[in-house]
Design brief:
The structure is a homotetramer of 414-residue chains. By secondary structure, chain A is of the alpha+beta class. Chain A is 35% helix and 12% strand. In chain A, a hairpin with a 2-residue loop joins strand 6 and strand 7. The longest helix of chain A has 33 residues. The relative contact order of chain A is 0.14. Chains in contact: A-B, A-D, B-C, C-D. At the A-B interface, strand 3, helix 8 and strand 8 of A face strand 3, helix 8 and strand 8 of B.
Amino acid sequence: MTRRAIDETLARYRAVRAQTVALAAPLAVDDQLAQSMPDASPTKWHLGHTTWFFEKMVLETFVSAYRPHRPDAAFTFNSYYESLGDRRPRAERSLSTRPTLDEAHAYRRAVDEAIAALSIDDAERALPRLEVGIQHEQQHQELVLTDVKSVLAPQGVAYVERTAERDAGTAPLRFEPFDGGLVEIGNAARDGFAFDNERPRHRVWLDPFAMGSRLVTAGEWLAFMEAGGYDDPALWLSDGWATKKAHGWRAPCYWRESPGGGWIEATMAGERAVVPSVPVCHVSYYEADAFARWSRARLPSEAEWEHALGGIAVGSNLLESGAFHPRAADAHAPIAQARGDAWEWTASPYAPYPRFVPFDGTLAEYNGKFMCNQFVLRGGSCFTPGSHLRPTYRNFFPPDARWQMSGVRLARWR
Amino acid sequence: MTRRAIDETLARYRAVRAQTVALAAPLAVDDQLAQSMPDASPTKWHLGHTTWFFEKMVLETFVSAYRPHRPDAAFTFNSYYESLGDRRPRAERSLSTRPTLDEAHAYRRAVDEAIAALSIDDAERALPRLEVGIQHEQQHQELVLTDVKSVLAPQGVAYVERTAERDAGTAPLRFEPFDGGLVEIGNAARDGFAFDNERPRHRVWLDPFAMGSRLVTAGEWLAFMEAGGYDDPALWLSDGWATKKAHGWRAPCYWRESPGGGWIEATMAGERAVVPSVPVCHVSYYEADAFARWSRARLPSEAEWEHALGGIAVGSNLLESGAFHPRAADAHAPIAQARGDAWEWTASPYAPYPRFVPFDGTLAEYNGKFMCNQFVLRGGSCFTPGSHLRPTYRNFFPPDARWQMSGVRLARWR
Amino acid sequence: MTRRAIDETLARYRAVRAQTVALAAPLAVDDQLAQSMPDASPTKWHLGHTTWFFEKMVLETFVSAYRPHRPDAAFTFNSYYESLGDRRPRAERSLSTRPTLDEAHAYRRAVDEAIAALSIDDAERALPRLEVGIQHEQQHQELVLTDVKSVLAPQGVAYVERTAERDAGTAPLRFEPFDGGLVEIGNAARDGFAFDNERPRHRVWLDPFAMGSRLVTAGEWLAFMEAGGYDDPALWLSDGWATKKAHGWRAPCYWRESPGGGWIEATMAGERAVVPSVPVCHVSYYEADAFARWSRARLPSEAEWEHALGGIAVGSNLLESGAFHPRAADAHAPIAQARGDAWEWTASPYAPYPRFVPFDGTLAEYNGKFMCNQFVLRGGSCFTPGSHLRPTYRNFFPPDARWQMSGVRLARWR
Amino acid sequence: MTRRAIDETLARYRAVRAQTVALAAPLAVDDQLAQSMPDASPTKWHLGHTTWFFEKMVLETFVSAYRPHRPDAAFTFNSYYESLGDRRPRAERSLSTRPTLDEAHAYRRAVDEAIAALSIDDAERALPRLEVGIQHEQQHQELVLTDVKSVLAPQGVAYVERTAERDAGTAPLRFEPFDGGLVEIGNAARDGFAFDNERPRHRVWLDPFAMGSRLVTAGEWLAFMEAGGYDDPALWLSDGWATKKAHGWRAPCYWRESPGGGWIEATMAGERAVVPSVPVCHVSYYEADAFARWSRARLPSEAEWEHALGGIAVGSNLLESGAFHPRAADAHAPIAQARGDAWEWTASPYAPYPRFVPFDGTLAEYNGKFMCNQFVLRGGSCFTPGSHLRPTYRNFFPPDARWQMSGVRLARWR
């Protein structure tokens, strides 16, 4: 049985690793080396970092004879692990011209071969770490796309060709009632893999509430803009108002005003006019919160979200199915009540669950140390690998982040 | 009965207003005009701002014939009310040389006289706003002290003379067990005045926990320092570690290393050697959180805090009793199990309670718009007016703030 | 004769010291404690710094029994002398609440008494340093006025009452021809006191040139503004254009657009409409240079200036004569061909003259270390003590400085 | 004769264009896309910018039927020409992932073909602009090397292989006397091509001086370091001292302390121990000036430099001869009295010569608008194309620049 588990894991390892490379394939070399801002990383860095993660967490830990493939990988590809030594400052990742992109691919292949050559004994001991590494690489697959979008979008460059897009219209927004009470959220051990921050499963008291039946659409956002939502400080958090002013925000990220009137959005399939029926995306927490206040509603807490939406079927998955195409990827087909169009800002600051226990050892730095100054997003986006669309998954970003696929779902008290 | 309520309120008005002036009395004019950093304000500004608050919220609102005492007060003394027009940027408050300090006192007297001259009818309508104004002024009394401490401490200047200080020793730290369960926190309407952010009273589920019997002491903090607590990133939140490095923190704010060894603390009675038995103070959330992790404990949530400590007797009050003196003010006499030595960082991000409703009108900006990027502190400090030491009171500051009287109480899971 | 020299110097010492105090007299205490920006200093700081200068350079150097009046003066009032130990960072001068303003005056009196009590022997040895100290204090008299103007002007507060102002009209601008050739500039030893940077007298080759007969007027500046001078990058230095955009400059400092049209200028006598006939003032080097280019002219070099204008009679002096009043101080009466209305930007970067020798000892830091990234201004302003209006005097400021009394004179090649 | 001039110019065009491509050949694609800091540019940008320069200044100006090769080239490759429209901010040049490097080479080829296809008439009219474009491209050849060195050096990556290096020892430093007097400097029209900033030839008065016989060596710099030169503020300009502290400078750029003692220098041939006999390089003006003061000498003015060294034979040229190799390129073989090892900081702020006339039209922005806040460097470096080593050539950089090949020659008064 262990043998089967190992085989199954290694098969997923190969598939996930190949998928990352496939995601980079449509890009020019130049696109893969640019870093648009400190928060985003070059594609090359993602390719290397995920590889370094397996090398450091699996090969160097469990294979006594293993020697690192490159001495400079630890400095170049360590993201934020203080316990693993010096690393290049985050804002300077594009300055690591070595390893080159070709060398980064050679690094990937060398580590893949070493993983394939794991002895049964080593593989068995490494199994939990292999699993974390696979999940970790899937997280970075989404980041490859969001980060490169921040490079391509301002240049109006497309990642894929646009296919025909049918505007299905927008279903009316309903607020579904929930009684709340003493509910349970979080991931139980029996549920299979989860990150440490999803656990333990625990009780939460919820007052009665109502949850929006779908995400807020671009058309509804246009109404907010036309109503002066970006100009009324009464709608905004104080920090949000200051941030909005400092950056001159007037619309979601990647929107620009058309010289002929109307708004144009940069998508992964290039620029097109904003489509009113699709979920709005690339808004910050501050904007989502202001929109909710303008709507005489609020953002849901993550417990409300998980209680109300945890059982809902997810949207069609893109990365996993290989069906990654512009309509799906970035055109936000209107899929009522589905998780997986855009990440949904919640009103919950990112904090540990009661009795939270971080991963062991080095991996203790994986999630816990970021539980401050961020907000939880739930659901998943059209960039998210399908197996990550689980109900208990907690994504998190600072309230001013806009380059992720972040949208809005409303909630209300009953 | 309304007449009695009015008389009672006006009597408290006079007492509180006089107390603010009394707090400034020991200061040189120079001390009252300096602004140590954007977060802190000059004493003169506090004197004017609290006065402007009454003028704007009471006199201009309820007295039709009232004309503002000075045309420049609105620009100079508006703190953050977007709905009330342009205002001087926060960081430049010391550049308002007009009104002068003398003129600010004249402004106070003019507004006090106008309040004293309120008709019964006006006073009755204004009563809730008068109450908010009084509570507001009391909040600024504490800020007068914390802000001027940030001016005096680096210069080694005393605000009061030191009286004999007896080191009472430190009681052993016990962790008192609590069963938790479905509990209620928050302020109910019948409890008298409360700020909007304390309401409504609502249910929260608490897992069983244990609460520290007293605040962490300076002696315990020294042990943390000697154990390398400031040098071990594994103890710190990621943002905390970056903040610590950027500022070069090695000890609480206002501590400096003595040339002859040991540590010296600047208190309101001037500098003295750190007293191990008194509660540590002037630490940021980041430091409090790192200390808790080093202690194999954690910070309590605000619900745990209120549930466990809400019924505990508070320490001797200082501002209210007129007994403000150095021992009490800033030497932190060890008072086991008392609220009121130092504000206690909780692990709770500052967020609205379920069904939170902001104050009406302009006062909607009082609390709600700050519910982001801050943490709740509970309890109160030796600078806090006694009537503010209520169990439901929610203080809040960003996690890097150190100039407030902020200390640490530990908690644990059971 | 030495005795007479000592008596004469001490008499000037008393007069100059009294003049500084007199300059502060019209100000509120609050005005004297504010620091508008890092480049400007509070009046209190000037009062203390000039005193510390005499204490450190004269009393501590030549009077063996002298003990510093206050231990904190060295930290508080040292401006930039690296050789004299730690000092408060320049940007934080308003945070020195001690010494208080009263204590600063007590400090002045104590040092004045110690200077008055100098023995003949000590005074004789100290004579050159006394002279430097007097000249130094006079330099700070001008800074007291320019720095406090930067506090008062944005508040629309007057330093003096306005007296009747007669618009004398503007003389036509002529360009007076000069042959140039091998000329001498700089201060010769026989000329009496000069700063080290004015020496030695040395030869310079000048091509034939023509010098403007008077300063550029506010009316001419308005024409530049109306012609789009602030919007045409072709007129500006690259650094100047970037600076202009960063600060949003559209007019000289202290000018603001009137709601009813036209421009209003904040002067030391309060605000008034811009008077077209008076010299424009409070412009940066960048603006002066752009104006000159727009005028198909250029700024003169300092050698041209000194050669052409060194023999011209100066304007009526203000500080010295006691006749300091609004017309003179800041209303710039049109005085054709007079030095002393406003400092005149030259095209000369501030650099040492050939064979420059700094002052001895500590005073080596007085001028030489600033010979970088600044431009020389010549002439003097209505704020300048009359004895400083000598032809060889070199004032210097960075090219973006606008809070000094800096104006424009044009020159051309022949 | 015009035909011959055209042919000669086009032959040089081809040679220079090919040389730029050859300089990039040893680099990985990754190296060519990185931007180490706002001041430096990616190699790809240099390849594109020099091409855009010919397209804009020659083809679009003189060939009526010419259409730009790429619509995005103007935005991407305009360096600083305000008159030519919007452009990517300098600090973000690495974010232009399109054109890709391949497309940039295609752009080069397309423009080269259009230049080759110029009609005789167009070529004749364009001849002066072609010449400027060639000279301009040669300037960028040096920048390709200095900018990519700033990418490679911190990574310890070599651009070329090191060849044997013979330490020839250091000739004693002599100070050669010059009488000065009324001399002429600057470029006369008959001297062939020169940039506008080198003209006109004009008279300058020089006091008698003495000029160092060779550049300061790394060994002499080590002595300065060991004598505490970086720790003594008395040696430094005020701005220099502040800059030094802010950056933590302790040695020239690209030097690092060896774990085993001694200093290591990153050169274009990789890292090696500092060689005492070669000229020191990569020092800022501030450091050069401090070194000179420590040496009881000074930096020469540019007029002194040109008068004393204008007739001296230059060192072996590297770029032009094709003999670019590590010894020559970056190991600074000791060549006494030769120009061309390293650029030499002068004490002269970069300013226009008397009667300076900028190039016509768009090219007016080429040099003149930068005549502020910079210092002139003379001579040339081992990275400089040989034909640029002319005696009147004026290079210029801000005083804190260290990534250029900037060294030190001393001078003294006689």
